[in-house]
Amino acid sequence: MSISRRTMFGLGAAGAAAVGAGAIAARSLLEEPTAAHAASTSDPFPFYGEHQAGIVTPAQDRLHFVAFDVTTSRRDELLELLQEWTAAAARLTQGKEAGAFGAVGGPAEGAPDDTGEALGLPASGLTLTIGFGASLFDDRFGLAAKLPAALAPLPKFPGERLIPEISGGDICVQACAHDPQVAVHAIRNLARIGFGRVSVRWSQLGFGRTSSTSRAQVTPRNLMGFKDGTNNMKLEDAALVREQLWASAADGAAWMAGGSYLVTRKIRMTIETWDRTSLREQEDIFGRDKGEGAPVGKAREFDPVDLAAMKPDAHVRLAHPSQHGDAHLLRRGYNFVDGSDGLGRLDAGLFFIAYQRDPRKQFVPVQMSLARTDPLNEYIKHVSSGLFACPPGVRDAGDFWGRELFA
């Protein structure tokens, strides 16, 4: 499928030349994101590749996540938007402005094609990752036959109190970066480009990653003070990543081959109650010590877990892959603090993000077990939920987000 005229113009002369010449200019960015490490927090990650960046990419420090509702009913307008977004994303992730003329290079009588608040800032490791919700596969765009079985609605889990207004969505975009202004700038410009065709349904800012996606990263802590994601799937686990992260054409949706399924959960913590809980009870609940992060009965964080040594309902035990048919998740969540709730309590917690090959076999059984018996539920509540199909990566400048879905 060809790129629209408007998108070609948005790419600028260099982008147009790349498309016309078979995207030769884009080849320098065609690194495999699964193994990409930026040299510093200021440097860019490759945009083009077999898989989307922002999944196994070493998790950055900041997040701006947004879910959009598509407001146009025209298939051609949605296609054009995805092309324009892809062109902008390719520029933004490399530290450039969203459009060819930037914030100040266009005619003074017209609106700039970049909002300008990231002028002078480096790429800061920005990644942009797109996903499609089940609601996009209704009768508006002729996509019903391509709805993946893995996008089946998540079941209602015991105890959850989801807020519909901050759940779901037709399309999501995850912006991760080491500078919050860079992440916010990227989402702001995609929303600006999408005006009249999409509207923001909900969004979430996050800070302080709560999982490591690479063995080169130290394990971070969540707002309860515990190391989080010690046994998270890592990009270096090549066989596990291939088996449990990336979708295959054999799974039933050929357009998703090389993609992954994203589950988001906004989990609010009753911080004040947790802070008055004894250290022993906190450690019993998690099944790890609070200082080192070692599992019960062990001395170091990465010592093998002895499930028999911890309480039957310890969080680590309930979530352990051995309890769910060896189901693994690639987690890359973030802390959030959204002010207070008007009663003097912090509106804070974890914005959970997990990628996997099939949520029905991975997230659902793990979460069902936790929802039923995890003592941590006394201190947390799930208030939003999202499930999205994240397509494979953009191969070159002649490609765009979701092209195979619309082929």
UniProtKB/TrEMBL annotation:
* Known cofactor(s): heme b
For this entry, list what GO says about its biological process. iron import into cell
Q: How is the cofactor bound?
A: Binds 1 heme b (iron(II)-protoporphyrin IX) group non-covalently per subunit.
Which intervals hold domain Dyp-type peroxidase C-terminal?
Answer: 219-394
Which residue positions does the secretion signal occupy?
none
InterPro entries according to UniProt:
Dimeric_a/b-barrel (IPR011008), Dyp_perox_C (IPR048328), Dyp_perox_N (IPR048327), Dyp_peroxidase (IPR006314), EfeB/EfeN (IPR006313), TAT_signal (IPR006311)
Which key words tag this protein in UniProt?
A: Heme, Iron, Lyase, Metal-binding, Oxidoreductase, Peroxidase, Signal
One Pfam match: Dyp_perox_C
Instruction: Provide a Gene Ontology MF annotation, just one.
Output: ferrochelatase activity
**Highest taxon listed in the record's lineage:** Bacteria
Where is the major localization of this protein?
A: other
E.C. number: 1.11.1.-
Enzymatic reactions:
heme b + 2 H(+) = protoporphyrin IX + Fe(2+)
Q: Which cellular components does GO assign to this protein?
A: cell envelope; cytosol
Places the protein is found: Cell envelope
Q: Which residues form the Dyp-type peroxidase N-terminal domain?
A: 52-207
Membership in a protein family: Belongs to the DyP-type peroxidase family.
Q: What does this protein do?
A: Involved in the recovery of exogenous heme iron. Extracts iron from heme while preserving the protoporphyrin ring intact.
- What is the protein's given name? Deferrochelatase
Q: Which species?
A: Nonomuraea soli
The organism's lineage? Bacteria, Bacillati, Actinomycetota, Actinomycetes, Streptosporangiales
